[in-house]
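Exercise 7.
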Amino acid sequence: MNILDIVKNYLPGNLAAQISGSTGENEAGISNVIKAAIPTLLSGLINKSSSDSGGVLDMVKSAANSGILSNLGGLAGRNEMTTGGFNIWSALRSLFGDKLDDIVSMLAGFGGVKTATAEHALGATSAAALGAVGKYAEDKNMDAAGLSSFLASQKGIISSLIPSGFDFSKIGSWLGIGSLGTAAAAAVSEFTAPPAEPISYAAATQKKGGNNWLVPLVILAALGGLIWWMTKDGCNKSTTVSNTSMDTTVTTVAADTNAGATTTVSAKESVVLTLPSGATINAYKGGIEDQLIQFIQSDEYKNAADDEALKNRWFNFDNLNFEFGTTKITDSSKVQLNNIVAILKEFKQANIKIGAYTDKKGDDAANLKLSQGRADAVKAALDKAGASSQLKGSEGYGEKFAAVPETESDEARAIDRKVAVRLVK
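Solution. The predicted structure, written as tokens, is:
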């Protein structure tokens, strides 16, 4: 498993939107800060582990055991980055020393945001990354040498995560890994999606041992994964796309916003997903189908004791649309709905709940009614297609979880308009 997969499972998908809402700064700029903060933080871990592997192991385990992963949404501001006795800024000082302030300034400049906003974004991103790596180390029963070896093996992947235009050379020289900057620039500027290849979950299930079923990712695939991941938005903790992200998916909406149909024009990489039975479905790499299959087979899902442990893991549809001003699902959306039914039939133990969301514009009651109607429409479509026994409810949340102010542009508010599912136990 690569380090990107480990971190992206915990970083709140709507982090940029949350910080934008609390600071008033541009969400796209904050998203850029987060993109640059990820490889910066992970590079700091690699560098530190080469000279103090025991200290790094203690650091990430302390983060994991502090409860910080369950409090990521509540972290805000440089002076409030403490949970369960673990202080994010003390950890960052340990990793970057007297260069931390310079790094924050570089991130702020790259995102075009204030220093305080860059601090906020770096702190929250680091909390998720350190906690996630610590949990992984504990789950794998890693000692200091094992973690150091694992981190060292991730250099190539981390290199590919550095966003185009971010001058990593100074950070690289401070950390003694300056070559990463050059490698990353080439990886980003020359990246083109490789031809679609089948992803087989059938072969994966024949292997033994927890997470070993994951197919190892090469550097460019990791970049593709980051492109998907950085576009996630939260209905609590969910995955979706917006125009301000790195993803090549473009979401366009009718001028009547919540009343209108949402049309997704996708340039994502198409893949053929092979289910354990050998059946195949056509989907997007990193799309809702791919995510659901992986999550259902993950230890996190299998070991979840009850529904409470799953309630914040939402997965957004990325090819589901409605006719303008109605709850009528377009014919083209039936492909993805049929894929979801195929997955549910494959995994009989999996039950789902459907949620629908609007942005903040318009009448609150009307938005709630529209979202409920659309959630019910999706449930009815899945029911009709043969998944009735595994459907455990549909709920419209209206604008309850919307993060973008209604005074923002329609394009900016598109991030809050979505339909999603979550697993239910």
